[in-house]
Amino acid sequence: MLRNTLLLLGSVLVALALCEGYLRTRGSRILPKPDLYQLDPDTGKRMKPGWTGTEFGTAIRINSHGLRSPETPREKADGTFRILALGDSWTFGFRMDEEDSYPRQLERILNERLEARGASGRVEVINSGVIGYSTFQEAAYFRTRGRHYSPDLVIIAFYPVNDAEDKSSRYVRYNRLHEIHPRLLDLYRLPRKLYLRQFIKGARRAVKRRLAELRLSLAEKLSYEDPGAQAIAERDWTQPYRHGDGGWELAQEGIQDIAETARGIGARGLVVLLPDVVDLARYEDLYHPRVAPLVREQVSRTDLDWLDLLDHFRPFRGREEAIRPERRRHPNADGYRLIAEVVANTVERRYLPPELP
Prior knowledge:
By secondary structure, the chain is an alpha/beta fold. The longest helix is centred in the middle third of the chain and has 28 residues, at 195-222. The protein starts with a helix and ends in a 7-residue tail after the last helix. The chain is built from twelve helices and nine strands. The protein has two domains: 80-166 and 240-349, SGNH hydrolase (Rossmann fold, 3-Layer(aba) Sandwich); 167-233, no CATH class. The chain has helices spanning 2-26, 89-92, 102-116, 135-144, 168-180, 182-189, 195-222, 227-233, 246-264, 280-300, 310-313, 333-350; strands at 37-40, 44-47, 52-55, 58-61, 80-86, 122-127, 153-158, 268-273, 305-308.
């Protein structure tokens, strides 16, 4: 019995190792690279300084400060208007080359306009976006690191699909384990570094949605409502947007925190509400009315400014494929260009000083 048990366990381990090896060689375009990130006591996670490689099939280079941005000294040169772009994967430039990310396109557009009017000054845009960040993490980064760049303007790209998720408990747990012993944390986080775990997690989500669809079909036949199944099947991400939800409370605290940090360094702030480009009709008709008023109300309690991009994305309602890859939640280069142009218009009108040489 012992021999058979050991043989079974050995076979399972070999099979799992083969699956892990296959996913690492074949799954680089659909699975995130676990080694791109490291634990951070303030933000929960951050990108490793100097990391280079590919993420979802796209070349990635992280600078010495842990940002997907050109090397930029903390000291600001004379005649420079500096913008710090806070955000998640939309700011990072998910599946896009760095030059196609909205912060880099924004920098090019503004500098081209300055050059066209004969100005010798320049605009610098620092991309501090990190895949998976929520507003409270962006606020923590700005408070502890981003503020030292002395930005004149901080732009908060608020992506409502997941910016109200509560990830704080996970990172509190990480820090407690790290305080006990770093090796204990490494052991605890080891499964998260496996591609096999990420694949199983994705498959579990797919199965969960399929079961929700079956529940809805049964509910329809039996003439009763199943709001939980409907939310899962329709990928309704608006559930946290209600008073008392932990994720929404953290998002509100993050917005307030960013406003206070900006005020403390004499910077101005702009909150940009990004759309859900998967289905602009559903977003405009169902989700935007639930979410936008709450976010705008919170922003109005601070001295931050507000920019809602829905009006600018509305022309692509029903033809979303023009601004995003097929079946993707993120924009393509043209979609990021649209964001950059709208934000550039706002920056030029509201924030660029007329005395910029």
